[in-house]
Amino acid sequence: MKYKKIMIILFIGLFSNLLFSYETQEIKIYSKAMDKSPNDTVILPKTYGKTNKKYPVVYMLHGWTGDNKNFTYYDREIGKLADLYDLILVMADGNFNKWYFDSTVNPKYQYGTYVGKEIPEYIDKNYKTIKNRSARAITGYSMGGFGAFNAVMSYPETFGIVGSMSGAVDIEKYHTKWNIEKIFGKEADWEAIAVKNNLYKILDKKVNIIFGCGTGDDFIGINRELHEKMIMLDIPHTYIERPGKHDWDYWRTELEFQLLYFSKYLS
User: Regarding beta strands 208-214 and 136-140, do their DSSP bridges make them parallel or antiparallel, or are they unpaired?
Assistant: First the structure.
């Protein structure tokens, strides 16, 4: 009899987890700017649809060579964070290596508009979201860190919070690598593209900022420069350095820090 009771309790627990845990959706969001529908991933918290509540949203951008499934593949616990903080997570597809930028070289690559404007508009139209900038955050790792800052600086009316993990925030010395020149052009003004030189766009926008980099990462120098520029301009922000490399061991932990930070400001 005792054994049966234990089995019943375990069954109820398992059934409850299956019934009330987060939901992952693979969707396609049409881009008018590019006339195509890239793949995107949405994670809904376990409470979604059970009340009339509206939710804040965190948009997440993968790194170079990745896609919208990178976060769920490399961080199997990420859905639990949606449950923990009761928010919607949206993972965009940056088409492998398109840098979340509106290319002047190839008009087919308008991923700045897609991430900064078209995806949030679709999510707000089709999901129960809080429709103001204070309820939208965006973050990313590596190439996605650049993309997150670019989105906020291009669409400050859309996002009130930004994060970056090991972000490629200044690509001048890397521009011959990683498909960069095919997006920005060989004669691009690299100084004008660097995040630190676009901070003036958000000086009066009251954006909550968190970013960090591992001390063993090749991007540590450019992230320190961005941190120093923000100090010089008296821009409030949180900057974190800790041991780590340019890999998922670092990003998984950093993402936990950032979602905790976001949860304190999303409203």
Answer: unpaired
Going by C-alpha positions, the residue among 169, 132, 110, 135 that lies closest to residue 59 is 135
Cα(211)–Cα(227) distance, integer angstroms: 9
Q: In DSSP terms, which residues pair with 161 in a beta bridge?
A: 137, 208
Report whether 171 contacts 147 (CB < 8 A): no
- For 238, list phi and psi in degrees, rounded to 5: -115, 125
- Measure the CA–CA gap between 195 and 15, rounded to whole angstroms: 47
Cβ-based neighbour number of residue 12 at 10 Å: 10
Q: pLDDT tens for residues 62-77?
A: 999 999 999 999 999 9
Task: List, edge to edge, every strand of the sheet that includes 88-92.
Answer: 23-28, 39-44, 88-92, 57-61, 136-140, 161-165, 208-214, 238-242
Answer yes or no: are the C-beta atoms of 134 and 143 closer than 8 Å. no
Give the C-alpha separation, 259 to 238, whole Å.
Answer: 13
**pTM score, whole prediction:** 0.92
Confidence of residue 20 (pLDDT cuts 50, 70, 90): low
pLDDT digits (tens, 9 = 90+) for 123-143: 999 999 999 999 999 999 999
Say if strands 136-140 and 161-165 run parallel, antiparallel, or are unpaired. Answer: parallel
Put residue 66 in one of left, alpha, beta given phi > 0 → left and psi -120 to 50 → alpha.
beta
